[in-house]
Design a protein that fits this description.
The chain is an alpha+beta fold and about 200 residues long.
Length: about 200
């Protein structure tokens, strides 16, 4: 079974992948639309809807969005209601918006949070903002989940560095390879693993 497959509708296909999902690809391989919110992402990318809502525990909003050329965020846990959302790991789960533009994303986020508008935060200015990038060599899917593609890896690293340099040039405080513990490192530590278990 691959990401984006369901017994009801079959395999979700990305409008950006000619020929569809490669049958020999890994679960979240590069031909795959990218996880449990892939239908929401592919629908917006294909023009079936202007915006959509996804849900995620680990990557199921931002991965499909990134593979469908969309904007998305995972709101802080607890900021959005989860009524009707299948709950496997409550401490990680959240609903979240997907859209083609930052303004649409802000407006949908406001609706989901019960606010009048988030558009006022889209000032077009970068003053006072900070952004941290995790180490892309540590924060990536295992090869069993997403097989390696040398062409993608080279392009991804180049564009990530280019994005960081562009943001820094515009006055944003940029931290590269921010030192956050990975899931593997958390669960290697018994105290960290117990904390996660207590929260769930």
């Amino acid at each position: 079974m691959t990401g984006g497959w369901s017994a009801f509708g079959g395999q979700t296909q990305s409008p950006y992948v000619e020929g569809g999902v490669d049958r020999d690809d890994t679960w979240l391989g590069h031909s795959n639309p990218g996880g449990s919110s892939s239908g929401s992402a592919a629908g917006v990318a294909a023009g079936f809807a202007p915006v959509s809502i996804g849900t995620k525990s680990e990557g199921s909003i931002v991965t499909p969005a990134s593979r469908a050329a969309l904007y998305s965020i995972k709101p802080t846990i607890g900021n959005l209601p989860k009524h009707g959302v299948f709950s496997a790991v409550p401490i990680f789960e959240s609903a979240g918006p997907l859209a083609k533009t930052p303004r649409d994303l802000a407006d949908l986020t406001a609706i989901l949070m019960g606010q009048k508008s988030c558009s006022s935060r889209l000032t077009g200015r970068w003053d006072g903002l900070g952004l941290a990038f995790v180490d892309p060599t540590k924060w990536k899917w295992s090869q069993a989940i997403c097989g390696r593609n040398d062409g993608f890896e080279k392009q991804y690293m180049h564009e990530l560095e280019q994005a960081a340099n562009t943001l820094a040039a515009r006055g944003i405080k940029v931290a590269q390879k921010a030192n956050f513990p990975t899931f593997e490192e958390i669960f290697e530590n018994q105290e960290g693993a117990q904390t996660i278990e207590n929260l769930t």
